[in-house]
Specification:
The chain contains twelve helices and 14 strands. The protein is α/β, with parallel strands linked by helices. The protein folds into three domains: 153 residues, Jelly Rolls (Sandwich); 215 residues, 3-Layer(aba) Sandwich (Rossmann fold); 143 residues, no CATH class. Strands 2-3-8-5-6 form a five-stranded antiparallel beta sheet, with no helix packed on it. Strand 12, helix 3 and strand 13 form a beta-alpha-beta unit.
Length: 551
């Protein structure tokens, strides 16, 4: 590539009143006024948060987006202003990949950071086709963005990551709570690298060594690989659920095939044993290492193929055993024993880097930040390992956002609307993004259903109205009362609607209609059911009420 023709832009941002992003300008701040349409609701191709900061809140949570001409690596340099010397600042790149955390401003009130972002096509959760990602995204908590420069950097090597939900880039809700959001260790790994290497995370929830290839994700990585790149692989959590992917059978065979194909491209494979679960259901309540065989098989493949190995299983299991079931809970997503929150994701990434420093990969090790530059792995407040002062991952509560237009792709005039379809349309309208992980909340909703991520997100946000363990009845026609109950909860959750009724699963229709009338969104049909046109009209009515409250 002609270096004189590389994409190279610089922005000086004098105040918080700088222009917002538009497709015409190709750069600027993203706020609740910007978001709209399907692409803005896919966390894999935006900044990974389920809501956007308002214009008034830019100084606390800033999302800046720059269109780029090609997929590939881009060196990004930013200057942040933070007048509070005790403030903790965190910076995310792309889909919530952490590039800086627990940072404090210097004597001049500034923080300067350089990192490399990777822009790459991806197959989002629930989709079957490849989506292009044509922009570099930067999200900042705790400081104001004052300068940003971005330059195409094709010579910089890429660290590609293959894996499952324990590795993937997980989205987060606003207000941002690092203890209750999901986090894969792959999205915390960039914080440990200088600008000399880029991380491209292609791990996805539910994937195995077989489905990563069969669903098209490997084609994206393989097509992007260049000599000098690296590929980290961690599988096992989902392989163990399939008989054809036994540890020393299909699992080991598939890992070996990936290694051969990576080396054929001139790239370097790195095997990572599956991170441990915190499972204590062995006799006597003892720790149960269900992934032992897959970790052993991964070690065996590494030895036979002379592939660098990072033993994350051993390191993570040692941590869990040392802290015990209760002591390790704060590092996992609440009520989960497999998936981490941001504290746990950062800790596991630190374990990965510790293992990387022990390998013979000198060139890649040279791209790591010095150990004395990195903050110690943090823990939730109140834990023995917690850093002093304010939580380094904290961010202010975002103001209510205006709803998007009603997505009517699921709503067809004259056709009955199911409970799953209405919930998905409501979450889309009010910008509740689906979760990457479905935790088997309801017996009749399965993780491979198209609406599973939306159901999980609605449950986590208190919108679903169905207790865990009970049937959700996703295919059942939605009633006016059930639909209104969802919308009332949304107005209460995001738009400060006063709460006069607790809309539990046993709440009668009369009370729901009364509450809806008080909020100005009541809607009734002759038979108490909704077809597509009626559901769309109900959503528009609720969106209008929400818009008035967010003004």
């Amino acid at each position: 590539m002609d270096q004189n023709k590389r994409f190279d832009r610089h922005f000086t941002l004098e105040s918080d009143t700088d222009s917002e992003y538009t497709p015409q300008s190709g750069s600027g701040f993203v706020t609740e006024h910007t978001a709209g349409g399907e692409l803005w609701r896919l966390p894999e191709i935006n900044n990974g948060f389920t809501a956007y900061p308002s214009a008034a809140g830019r100084g606390n949570l800033t999302y800046f987006r720059t269109d780029v001409p090609n997929a590939g690596n881009y060196t990004v340099k930013i200057s942040l202003s933070c007048p509070d010397p005790q403030a903790d600042v965190i910076v995310f790149s792309e889909r919530r990949r952490c590039v800086l955390c627990h940072a404090h401003p210097g004597p001049d009130g500034r923080i300067h950071l350089a990192f490399t972002a990777n822009v790459c096509p991806i197959i989002p959760r629930g989709k079957e086709t490849v989506y292009s990602d044509g922009a570099a995204d930067v999200t900042i908590a705790g400081a104001a963005l004052k300068e940003l420069s971005i330059r195409e950097a094709p010579e910089i090597p890429t660290v590609f990551i293959l894996g499952d939900s324990t590795v993937t880039d997980q989205p987060a809700d606003l207000p941002y709570d690092p203890a209750s959001c999901y986090c894969g260790w792959g999205q915390m790994l960039p914080a440990f690298f200088q600008e000399g290497a880029a991380v491209s995370n292609h791990a996805h929830s539910g994937l195995t060594t077989a489905s990563f290839r069969n669903e098209g994700h490997w084609d994206i990585v393989s097509g992007s690989l260049r000599p000098g790149d690296y590929v980290m692989m961690q599988f096992g959590h989902n392989d163990q659920k399939r008989k054809d992917l036994a540890a020393y059978g299909g699992y080991a065979k598939n890992l070996t095939r990936y290694i051969e194909e990576i080396r054929a491209k001139g790239a370097v494979p790195i095997l990572i044993t599956p991170v441990s679960r915190s499972l204590w259901n062995a006799p006597g309540g003892q720790f149960n290492d269900l992934l032992k065989d897959w970790a052993d098989a991964c070690r065996t493949v590494a030895e036979k193929t002379e592939t660098p190995l990072i033993d994350l299983h051993e390191q993570s299991m040692r941590f869990i055993l040392e802290h015990g079931q209760e002591g390790s809970k704060p590092f996992f997503h609440p009520d989960d024993y497999t998936h981490f929150n941001d504290f746990g994701g950062y800790l596991m990434a630190d374990f990965v880097v510790q293992g990387l420093r022990k390998t013979g990969l000198q060139d890649l090790r040279a791209c790591l930040r010095r150990e004395d530059e990195m903050p110690a792995p943090s823990a939730p407040q109140g834990q023995a390992e917690a850093p002093k002062g304010r939580n380094p991952f904290s961010a202010p509560k975002a103001p209510a956002q205006k709803p998007a237009g009603v997505d009517s792709c699921l709503l067809r005039a004259g056709v009955s609307v199911s409970r799953a379809e209405f919930l998905s349309a409501a979450c889309s309208t009010f910008l509740y993004l689906p979760k990457n992980v479905y935790n088997d909340v309801y017996p009749d909703v399965f993780g491979d259903e198209w609406y599973a991520g939306t159901v999980q997100g609605a449950y986590d946000s208190g919108l679903a109205g169905t207790p865990a363990g009970k049937n959700f009845r996703p295919a059942e026609p939605v009633s006016c009362a059930d639909a209104l109950a969802v919308l009332i909860r949304i107005l209460q959750d995001r738009y400060q609607a006063p709460k006069t009724e607790d809309l539990g699963p046993e709440t009668g229709e009369n009370k729901i209609h009364k509450e809806a009338g008080r909020l100005g969104i009541d809607f009734q049909t002759p038979d108490g059911k909704l077809d597509g046109a009626q559901a769309e009209a109900m959503l528009k009515k609720a969106a209008a009420a929400a818009s008035k409250r967010s003004c």
